[in-house]
Design a protein that fits this description.
Radius of gyration: 23 Å
Strand order of the largest sheet: 12-13-14-16-17
Number of helices: 7
Number of strands: 17
Distance between the termini: 42 Å
Order of helices and strands: EEEEHEHHEEEEEHEHEEEEEEHH
Largest sheet: 5 strands, antiparallel
Shape: flat
Length: 300
Amino acid sequence: MTPENDLQWLTAENGYQLAIEVGPTSSQIKARNAKGKDLKSVPAAVKKTETYAQLDALLGWLVGHEKQCADQVEAWLLRSLPVPTTVIAEVWPDEAWRRQLVDLVVATDDTAGFLRDAVRAEDSPTGRPQLGVVDLDGESATIDAEVITIPHPALLEDLDDLREFAAELGIEQSFNQLHREVFRKPDPLPNPTSTGLNDWADARFEQLRFAAGRASSAGFAIKGGYAVARVHENDRLVEASYWIGAEAPDWETWTGELSWIADGTALPLSDVGPVAWSEGVRMARHIHAGRTIEKSEEDQ
């Protein structure tokens, strides 16, 4: 969160002062009176001023920009594609970008570590962009490879040990990479030739819009009666698809099968990669948890 003494205060009408306080998960407009006393909330009269309107518009832009940065980092995570080191170095001075990137686990073919710094090519002694990391032995290291990856936690070996190590280092990621829910594919699979799972089927929602809203608010797409999580894995787009219903939004609905689609074809479970599996199960579990709980379920 922005330290109190780092806030940039603007003078508003009647002696009030306003500032934007940036936090790790949300930002807000703060106010203090003419005597410099911090107020718990912005007075209603101040909210009608031009200064507040301008600051509120700026806050809206900052919140939107922060979300765009987070969405792009998530896209890099889910696409499993190399990210040019130059891109990381160029956006690093932007505080919103830096909040999303700092302390992420990044990797090259021979180095992995927690991202702590980035230097543009023109400021680098080698003439190439460089990334400063704390490697997995706790030592400072430099990455000057052309590209890095931001691995999905399902691809990280010894994930529990890595989470424990991050806690020892006091690392708290703004973008939740290490503590993103991960679900491993069973080995062996009960039925590897099956093309779907019914573990989260038959969940009742009083209205379809409740299920759709739960999916959308978590960032999942809605497509033809399915909630969809898109992942690029093994050089192809895979859509994890969880049936939530296709009737009128205010009609009662029941969930159905979770399946994975690539090139228009449902994949056998044995062909589903670890990232697509994890993200699909994560989506289905999240939506399923919002179902209407029957009394018989509560008593179990």
